[in-house]
User: Fold this.
Amino acid sequence: MTDAADLADRVREGDLRLHELDDHADPETAAAARREIVAAETGVDLDAVGDYAFDAAEAESAVENMVGAAQVPMGVAGPVPVDGGAAEGEYYLPLATTEGALVASVNRGLSVIADAGGATARVTTSGMTRAPVFRVDGVAEASEVVEWVGGSADALREAAESTTSHGELEAVDPYVVGDAVYLRFVYDTKDAMGMNMATIATREAAGVVEEETPADLVALSGNLCSDKKPAAINAVEGRGRTVTADVLIPHETVADRLHTTPEAIEEANTRKNLVGSAKAGSLGFNAHAANTVAAAFLATGQDAAQVVEGSNAITTVDVREDGLYASVSVASLEVGTVGGGTKLPTQSEALDVLGLSGGGDPAGSNADALAEVIATGALAGELSLLAALASRHLSSAHEALGR
Assistant:
């Protein structure tokens, strides 16, 4: 049986490349061979990288040229009651991060929300997108393509859904720029985040567009999707889940638990999150929603790069007669509870902590609930940070926690 040292020698001799090792050995041995090569060439001891708890075969769909694993500390915040469209009950929120004070901050916010009776959360729209770009001769042909797409929903749906037993094509929105036609396909991907599902389905539908119209496909993604980039279209139209969480906190709870006043938090939110963000030309009007989103993504096996869209959030704060109203609306939170990194052992366990691992009943309900809980966590983080700023305790909190 081929061992790691033999494979490493074959790579050094030029007989094999790093990416070919999996064709000649089991995943564990291939990873060990890569570690040996990298360690020898860089002089770095990779014992910690090679000390991981899962079977390397479980990671084959998640990473290429595997050498080991990066371990990120995981904490837990909560519990917090969530009254959601899909989430219902008390939840602990697992958060994986290397930023000191983050879990403590979110935990403080969730505790305040719990004291106020819990948060309300709802997914208001859902749809994963892929937007291919086609070439035409000019605007006359572009108009012909748009007209055909408008009258051919059934044909496009049949082609797209032939590639998946779960996804459903909900809409195709055309955009014309000169001799380019962009078609933004929108899918219900149920409990999957659905990017791969949408891409494969759109490839099939794009073939029908080419057969039936003068359009020639240039690229399966024309960046109008828009994936892993700041984009106003996601802020307006949404991508993945559009979700809002809100809470009404009594005046005395604000004073006792957040050590400031509703008026001070409202002013901090207005001047920082709204006016300051507008002056900066930001697409996110929030304090640090991406902090909670990123930590929850790492903990539960989401696509970490899609934190870009997850930061596309607006925080609102209003002083009311009966307390402080606060909300976070995340326009494009792209999450799933099946597929991708959700299958890895620690990420699957984190989803189990939430009670949201795997497919939901009805389909899509687990991913909706996950979005609602993450939005509640983001709301907690916003409240905690705004209160720290309003009470001028931000720097002292970091000092106290040794950060």
Remarks:
- Residues 74-126+240-400 form a domain with the 3-hydroxy-3-methylglutaryl-coenzyme A Reductase; Chain A, domain 2 fold (CATH 3.90.770.10).
- Confidence is low (pLDDT under 50) at residues 395-399.
